[in-house]
Amino acid sequence: MDYIKAFLVGGAICALVQLLMDKTKLMPGRIMVLLVCSGAVLGCLGIYGPFSEWAGAGANVPLLGFGNLLWKGVQEAMAEEGFLGIFKGGLTSGSGGIGAALVFSYLGALIFEPKMKR
After folding, report:
1. Radius of gyration of the CA atoms of the chain, in A
2. Which of 25, 43, 65, 94 could pair covalently with 60 via S-S, beta carbons 3.0-4.6 A apart?
3. Would you give the distance in Å from CA 117 to the centre of its chain?
4. pTM (2 d.p.)
5. How far apart, in whole angstroms, are the C-alpha atoms of residue 116 and residue 2?
6. Could you report the per-residue pLDDT of 1-47, keeping only the tens digit for each?
7. In this structure, how many other beta carbons lie within 10 angstroms of the beta carbon of residue 6?
8. pLDDT score at 87
9. Cα–Cα distance for residue pair 38/78, rounded to 1 Å
10. What's the sign of the alpha-carbon dihedral 20, 24, 28, 31?
11. Residue 42 near residue 48, CB atoms below 8 Å
12. Which residues, 6+ apart, have CB-to-CB distance to 33 below 8 Å?
């Protein structure tokens, strides 16, 4: 049942993003920033935590989850280090995912020989 719930929630988030892409003139990069910032704001308001526990991976995997992860890192670092935690927390909490994305992107570029669009 957890798999079905995660699939439905993740699919609903993706469907809403697809509607944003189809029905507005927002560029994909701006929509991605909107998702990350929305996840951070929802985390700050205390809404994303319970939603994430209920939805599982369906809420944690999309960019909304990344924004919430950044917020959690900032919040924890601010509690430990004060003002400096604002700058360090998000980088510390998201470093594993960011590092993995860089490594796998590089490996993909080596394997598939990417070319510029014409």
Report:
1. 16
2. 65
3. 27
4. 0.77
5. 40
6. 888 999 999 999 999 999 999 999 888 889 999 999 999 999 999 99
7. 17
8. 87
9. 20
10. negative
11. yes
12. none
Q: pLDDT, tens digit, for every residue of 41-98? A: 999 999 998 998 998 888 888 888 889 888 999 999 999 988 888 888 888 888 888 8
Q: What tokens does 36 get?
A: 């990350």
- Alpha carbon distance 38, 20 (integer Å): 14
3-state SS string for 75-99: HHHHHHHHHHHHHHHHHHHHHHHHH
Contacts of residue 47, defined as CB under 8 A and 6 or more positions apart, other chains included, come to none
Residue (of 87, 83, 84, 53) closest to 68 by Cα position: 53
- Please give the Cα distance from 94 to 24 (Å, whole number): 30
